[in-house]
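# nightly structure sweep
# worker-07 picked up a monomer target from the shared queue
# config: single-sequence mode, recycle default, output format = C-alpha cells
# input follows
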Amino acid sequence: MKTYATVCACRNKRLRKFYAATAPGCALFSILILVSFEDVNPQNQYFYMRKLTFLLVLLLPIHLFAQQFEPVKALVKRRAPWLSDHIIFKTLKSPDFEIAQLQTVKNKLVISASGPNAAAVGVNWYLKYYCHRSMSHMGDNLAPVFPIPAVGKKETVKAEAKYRYALNYCTYNYTMSFYSWADWERELDWMALNGVNTMLTVEGMEAVWQNTLRKIGYNENEINNFIVGPAYTAWWLMGNIEGWGGPMPQSQVDNRKLIQQKMIKRMRELGIEPVLQGFYGMVPSTLKNKSKAHIIDQGTWGAFKRPDILDPTDPEFSRVAGIYYSEMQALYGKNIHFFAGDPFHEGGKTDGIDLKKAGASIQASMQSYYPGSSWVLQGWQDNPKQAMLDGLDKSKVLVQELFGEFTNNWEKRKAYDNTPFIWCSVNNFGERPGVYGKLQRFADEIYRARESTYSNYLKGVGIMPEGINNNPPDYDLMLELGWRTEHVDTRTWINNYAKYRYGVNNAHTSNAWQGFLQTIYQSLPGYQEGAGESIFCARPALKVKSISSWGTLTRNYDTVQFEKAVKEFALAAPGLMNSATYKIDLINMVRQVLSNKGTLVFNDLVTAYNNKDLPAFNKASEKFLHMIKLTDDLLNTDGYFRLNTYLKQSIANGNTAEEKANNLKNALMQITYWGENIRTEDNLHEYAYKEWAGLINSYYLPRWEIYFDYLRGNLQGKNAPEPDYFSWERKWVDENQKLNPEKPHRPLQEVVNQILSM
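# output follows
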C-alpha cells in the first residue's frame, strides 16, 4: 500500500490512480485527488500537496471511526438482515465508560456508541426491547419486523461493569468441543450482542504446547502422550489430566490453531479481549525424567495422572516460560492482555514451594513477554491461595468470584485481599439437563457488592457455565446486569424476557414465567451444583442419591406449582407453535415435569421390591420404562434434543477419517462414563449425562431394563449376579460410534398432551 504523500507526489497519471485506489483510507478522497491535482501548476504542486495532506490528516480519524463499526454492521447482516438497511452507527466519545445511545432519526435507527462492543449492545437492546426479538443458545427469535419500531426519546445504555466476562474452561468441552468456524462465528456474535468484552479462548493451545515441548527435547510420541483428545482440553489446561482421549491428530491441532487465529481477529473487531492460557508451571509428568529442575509430582485427579508442576522459583521455570510465551507470540501475536491459568487447581500439591515467590515468578514471566497483561485467577474452593496472592502485583490480577450463586468469598476474603474481582455464576455443571437458575440472587448479590465497602474492587460480571446450551434467561440476565445501574426486580424483568423470547405479549407465557420464577428459577439459599437431576439417567441401583457424584435428586421447589405453570405455558401453543424458542422451551419444561414424576414412580418401585411384592414391582417398573420411552418421544420432536445432532457436529468437525473416529469416541465417552478404566475411581460417570433422543432409548432404557430383569429374577428366587455396568457402558461406547437411524417423530402437541394428562 502507498501513503497519501506517495499518491500526491506521483507524476504518472495511471500510477496515481492505482495508488489512490489502494492507499489506506483513500476511498474517501481519491476523487478529490484525481480531479484536482491534474490541473495544478507544477510550480504550485508542492504547496498543494501540503494542504491536501493536512486535509487528509484531519479527515482520516472520521474515516477510521466509521470503520470501527463495520464488523457490527456485518453482524447485523448475519443475524437480522432485515434491520441492516435501516440502521446507522455514529461515534460517541466517552473516555471513562462504554455507552450506546439509540434514537430514530428520519426513519433510521441511529446508534451512537463509544465502540463496537457498545454498538452491538445497542443493537441487542433495540432487538429485545423494541422489536421483541432475541438470539440464544436454545433457539432464535429473529424473524423480520416491519416497519421497524421507532425510538422516540433517546435511550442510553451505559456499562456499569468494566469487564463482562464469559466462559469457563469446561464450556470449551461440554458445549464447544467440536465447534466449526460457523459455530464460533455465531457464538461470538451472541457474545458481542450481550456485551461480553473479555472471553476465555483456549481453542488452539495444543499447537503452543507442541512447539514448546519440541524445543525442550520431546519427541512426537511423547508429545502425543501429553496432549488430550478434543473433548478433554479443559481438564488438561487446568492441570487435572494428560493424554486422555488422545492422541489428537496433527491435522486437528493445525485446524484448531487456524480457528483460534480467526477467533482472535473477530474478537478484536467486536471489542472482545481474548483470555489465553498462561504458563503457570504445568509440565508433562515425564519431564522429571528429563530434567534436574525441581518438579513437584502432582499425583492423581481421581483416576487420572495429573501433569506435574515445574517449581516457579526454579531457574528452569523462566526458560521454559520464555519458550512457551515466544511460541504464543509466534502463533497468536503480542497484543494479548489477559492470561488464565491456576496452579495447584483442585487439590494440587504445594510441598516445598514458596507460594509467594512462586506467584511473583509466574507473573514476572507473563509481564516479561506481555507487559501490562492481567493474570485471571479462579475464585474456586481455596483458590487463589492467599500466600500466592501475597506475592503478586494486584493491579495486574483479576479474580473470578466463580460460584457466586452460592458463595460470597469476595466478602469473606475482603475482595481477595483488595484485588480486582468480578462476580460470576457457574449455574450449570457438566451441561447436565435441568431448568435452573437463581435469578434474583444474581441481581441481589451484584447490587450488594456494588454498594459494599469493596465496591472499588468489583470490576465486572461474568458467566462461567460448565455448559451453555441451557437456561437462556440466566445468561441474558447476568450479562445485562453489567449494563444496568438499578437493583433489578426479576419479576418485572422476566415479563420483558418472555416478550422478547417469543416475540409477542402473551398472557399464558407471561403467567407461566412468573410461576417458573417462583419455582425452578427461585433463589433459595443452600448449596447445590446445578439443577435437580433426572432419575431416568441414573446408573441403576435401588438407592440413588444423585445421578452424578456431586449432583442431587432433590427438588427444592414445589413441583405441583411448577407443573401448573407448565400447563399454563402449554396453553400458548395454538398461537406459538411455529416459534422455535417456544417449541424448545415447551419440550424442555415438559421434559422436566416428566423427570419430576419419574422420581415418584421410582420410589414406588423400590417400595414394591423391598416388600417383595412382584405384581406391584412389575406395574411400577413397566410405568417407569414407559416414562423413559415417552421422554425419548418428546425429545425426538426437535433436533435440538437429539443425540444425532451432536454426533453429526463431531463428525463434521473432523477433516480426516482419523479425526472423525476420535471425535465420535470422545463425544460418547464424555456423556457416559467420562473417562478412565479404574473401577475404584469411577466417580465421573454420568457427570455430563444428557437427556437426548437416541441416547435415552439406546443407552438409559436398556440399562434400566437389564436391571429390572435382574431385580425381577431376585424376587423369583433366581441368584443371578448383579449387572456389570462399568463394563457395559464402555462396551456401549465402543459399539455405538456411529449415527443411529432417525426414527419418525410423533406430533409434539400429542406427546405434550399425553404427558401433562398423566
